[in-house]
Amino acid sequence: DNNMPVMDGPTLVREARKIYPDLPFILMGAEGIGYNLGDVARDCGANAFFCKPVDWKKFREKVQALVGNKQ
């Protein structure tokens, strides 16, 4: 997300990726915000992205695909 107190989501992903290179990251953002969230996700190294409002079924499926189904 871009509205966070210290840094925006893409910056957080870039910084966290330095510490946790194998951790999957998913960006979420609003549609119609002046930039293409898919491009931003790719450029910052996120594994996936979702536009709000989020389809939670698809989100769950993506998380399971990225980290495995460990219930």
How far is it from the N-terminal to the C-terminal residue, by CA? Answer: 27 Å
- The percent range for helix content is 40-55%
Q: Biggest sheet, in brief?
A: 2 strands, parallel
* Average of the residue pLDDT scores: 86
- The DSSP helix count reads 3
The number of distinct β-strands equals 2
Secondary-structure content class: alpha+beta
Placed side by side, the strands forming the largest sheet appear as: 1-2
Model regions low in confidence, pLDDT < 50 over at least 5 residues:
none
Q: Overall 3D geometry?
A: globular
Please give the radius of gyration in angstroms.
12 Å
Helix and strand sequence: HEHEH
Strand content: 5-15%
Would you write up a description of this structure?
This protein has 71 residues and is an alpha+beta fold. It has helices at residues 9-19, 37-44, 56-67, and strands spanning 26-30, 48-52. Strand 1, helix 2 and strand 2 form a beta-alpha-beta unit. Helix 1 (9-19) runs parallel beside helix 2 (37-44). The radius of gyration is 12 Å and the shape is globular.
